[in-house]
């Protein structure tokens, strides 16, 4: 189809444009434009049309073709009004979009060729059209809510249109926008593209209104605040002058005086003085002044070169450790060696100690005792769950709410530069893609780096080499190796029943009686009662649960006494009736027993073997069960086993299959037609670790051969594919668990013989420890000759 073209009188518009369907009034004053209107009005009514195009630059008085936009509008002139100063006001209605061609001058009238642009007649599907209309309506509502001065009727008319073509065209003609945006819409032919441009214009205008409103509010608030602050400062100044002649400089003078008294290097003092001078120039009450004041006060409160004198009396330290802790002989010996070396070398290069052991074994209290023995300030920093390395290194001052890290905060609280700083639960610091807290601790715990530790908030080198760091952890297997390498590990193992009994009698019972307001003679605990609590009410390596149960008994005794004697709380003459807690009445105070004696497997079963496991809270027994069933040689593993334990089960299965034919005359087809199910009871409890290999292999071989395992037997050790038994850890906890379960014989790896030799007779007494180095020895001791 041939495009339509018209030669029409041409008018260049400045700062406005006309689009199809738009009725607009505009004034013309240029001679050629006035003559063009007069020429149009001399034509018949149906031919009174002009071609209007917007100028690119409004300042050009005699525009040429290059000064015009490419697309304009053919408009019908509806009315002409002559105004003073040779100005004509024209009322016109846009009809068709057209592209400007060449400009022609006929006398003093300017004509232009207008090439008509056909409209896009594409109609989107109904659902798409509905979605487009709804989206534009929602943006219009947001704009109307942000613009309180808009013509509500115009918005209402737009919201009532549900034809997307009409809505887009109506928006283009009626919505108040800059002429450059309207020109963009005029130049876009596809309906979808014009719709998207209108969405952008609406969203942009709404955001501009929101930002403008925010700026207006902030300016208003700032002006009001500054005015109020000015009045208050002037009033405060007058009050100070009336009282004693003080002025605002008194605070600055106090800061300068504090710097003079500060025990710090010249670098530190100069940095603080520089900050004070800066603070002096800031407006009082401003946010910057508050940040600067907080920084100055924080730095002035740091100890810097102020240190306390150590007490290097080793005999006194040993006495304090013995007073505060029962047992732990090797731990005490290592602590005393550490203190002696520190005193002898004047504290040079003292190692960083990490106390590792189950909960409730006294790690934190040992650190307190060391601080008391050295006469040092004690600071505890709990690292459990710390996720942000800024909690170690501090925040930048530029951040809102910035503060120093926990290390600097600990120094400030201690008031000395050489406190004992306990880094509690160091194995539980967070380490993920968001932050690496463990790496932040490397600088703190490295003696080569912490002499010039820089906190992001303080921004000055702080000497941490004089700080005595002691860390605590439950399990170091998941800790980063570089961090672990900077510390000396001292293990605190589980307590034996005898040690727990002495701790309860000498420490826990007197402590809880004092807390309950009772005398030592008020409640008597028999040894059997305390042993019953350990065996039947708590299952732990430490004594925390034991202490809680003792406290519960004390509270219940006080409650019963007050129930029988209501006036005793006010009348102290009523004496507390002594109570004796024995094995017989323990259930009256603590309820039914929670843990019953474990089955010792007097009635032996095929495929059932007892293993020993180490957990972060002590040792435990681990029963492994295997059954066989017709199948295709599959191995099913259940009981919440981790990856390491699953690998051990597969290795055990492979070794059993390798030796079953040659040593036990099991046909190879048996494994191809049989499925094996290996299960560890208490399936809700996750289990993992490299110490159950021989236990699983024994259970599998028992199920294959039908032979029963000896009664009162337990074992621990890892197995290789070739049948060798590897060494394991946590033997003290494992043997304690075996002793509690009534086990008489324990198979342990021969490579752990030296570890067993270090254990006391209290742990190994009454048990037959059998050392095995190969799986054949395990089977020889596990299976009875008569099965």
TrEMBL record:
One of its GO terms (biological process) is cellular response to heat. Its main location: cytoplasm. The active site is at 691, 734. Residues 8-206 form the Lon N-terminal domain. Induction: By heat shock. The keyword Lyase does not apply. Keywords: ATP-binding, Cytoplasm, Hydrolase, Nucleotide-binding, Protease, Serine protease, Stress response. Its EC number is 3.4.21.53. The keyword Amino-acid biosynthesis does not apply. It catalyses: Hydrolysis of proteins in presence of ATP. Residues 603-785 form the Lon proteolytic domain. It comes from the Bacteria. GO terms for molecular function: ATP binding; ATP hydrolysis activity; ATP-dependent peptidase activity; sequence-specific DNA binding; serine-type endopeptidase activity. ATP binds at residues 357-364. It is found in: Cytoplasm. One of its GO terms (cellular component) is cytoplasm. ATP-dependent serine protease that mediates the selective degradation of mutant and abnormal proteins as well as certain short-lived regulatory proteins. Required for cellular homeostasis and for survival from DNA damage and developmental changes induced by stress. Degrades polypeptides processively to yield small peptide fragments that are 5 to 10 amino acids long. Binds to DNA in a double-stranded, site-specific manner. HAMAP family: lon_bact (MF_01973). Homohexamer. Organized in a ring with a central cavity. This is Lon protease. The gene is lon.
